[in-house]
Amino acid sequence: MLGGIDPSNDPCNALRYIPSNTLTAITLELVLTVAFIQTYLMFRHGGKWMLTMVIGEFTYALGFGFRFGVHDYPDSLTIYIVEYLFIILSPCAFIAANYILLGRLSRSVGCEAHVLVPVRRLTLIFILSDVTTFVIQAAGGGLTVSNDYNTALTGAHIFLAGLVLQLVSFLSFSAITVRFLLRVRTHVPLAWNRDSKKGWHDDWRILAGALCISCVGILVRSGYRVAELSQTFHGSLSSTESYFYGLDTLPLFTAIAIYVPLWPGRFITADKDRDLALNPVRNTST
User: Fold this and answer.
1) Is 110 left (phi over 0), alpha (psi -120 to 50) or beta?
2) CA distance 281 to 98
3) What is each CA distance from 93 to 7, 144, 195, 252, in whole angstroms?
4) Confidence band for 286, pLDDT divided at 50, 70 and 90
5) Contact 127, 172 (CB under 8 A)
6) Are 132 and 165 in contact (CB under 8 A)?
7) Which residue ranges run through the membrane (predicted)?
8) Rounded distance, CA 97 to CA 47, Å?
9) pLDDT digits (tens, 9 = 90+) for 170-224
């Protein structure tokens, strides 16, 4: 940083503030803790189809690791770019994991027919959407750090478009998830109450609740990012660290941490799937 220059007025400081090492350290430790616990749970209880989330958590943590570098060298464009891209793009993996989870959950209770779109097609459609918005955001994010104002402005517009598309896509997915749960509860009460006499750790509805909580966290974060980019460069949302932690980091942490006590592999297992195949609970009513 140029000596004596206020970070908020430093043209070389992309964040317009000096990141707090204390907040960075706490966040890094929490995210890594979740990632390591879920890695253990994945091997202990199964659910390797949640691997995308775990990988995303490690890359997300890596982004916070680079915030220490941004603190020490706030004018380094290279460190900022790496930090920014890891933090902004890693949540795409969290989103993809939730897409996969809905398909697994609907099959585990034998109610795929109540998902608006056929499950295999649903997962493919939303994964492709996630990949597409990832590429758009990556391209736009790379341009936003250009020293040329017009190039950076174009990058911001591209990045904003990617965020908006991601938000619309995930809103659609969230609506499909809620619709699925309401239809199962209304039209297939046998499936809805299947685990009512079991403990909370075996009740599929608890996992469905975790999925909904995760979706809410991601939606809050996505809404914040869209609002942040709508302010163009150096608006109050992007240049205030408390907003970043309160509206981006905390919602995302909630979205992934909910799966520590409610690890999907504990609820959806090969044994349960075999039992379901022998005694399916299905209802084709519409």
Assistant:
1) left
2) 23
3) 32, 22, 30, 11
4) very low
5) no
6) yes
7) 23-43, 50-69, 81-101, 122-145, 157-182, 203-223, 243-262
8) 11
9) 999 999 999 999 999 999 999 999 998 888 888 999 999 999 999 999 999 999 9
**pLDDT digit string (tens) for 129-152?**
989 998 998 888 777 767 777 787
SS3 188: coil
| Beta carbons within 8 Å of 18's beta carbon, 6+ residues apart | 1, 7, 71, 74
Instruction: Report the domain count for the chain.
Output: 1
CA torsion through residues 201, 206, 208, 209, sign: negative
82 located within any domain:
yes
pTM confidence score:
0.88
Cα–Cα distance, 151 to 147 (Å, whole number): 8
d(CA 24, CA 5): 23
| Alpha carbon of residue 24 to chain centroid | 19
Under a CB-based contact definition with an 8 Å cutoff, are residues 276 and 110 in contact? Answer: yes
Rounded to 5 degrees, what angle do the CA atoms 111, 112, 113 make? 90
- Helix extents (H) in 73-118: 77-89, 91-108
Which of 215, 261, 257, 264 has the alpha carbon at shortest distance from 30? 257
| Token pair recorded at residue 128 | 């492709």
CATH number, domain with residue 203: 1.20.1070
Asked whether residue 8 is assigned to any structural domain, the reply reads: no
In the block, tokens 């519409």 appear at 286
Domain that holds residue 154: 21-265
Q: Could you report the per-residue pLDDT of 240-278, keeping only the tens digit for each?
A: 899 999 999 999 999 999 999 999 999 998 645 544 544
Distance between CA 179 and CA 186 in Å, rounded?
A: 10
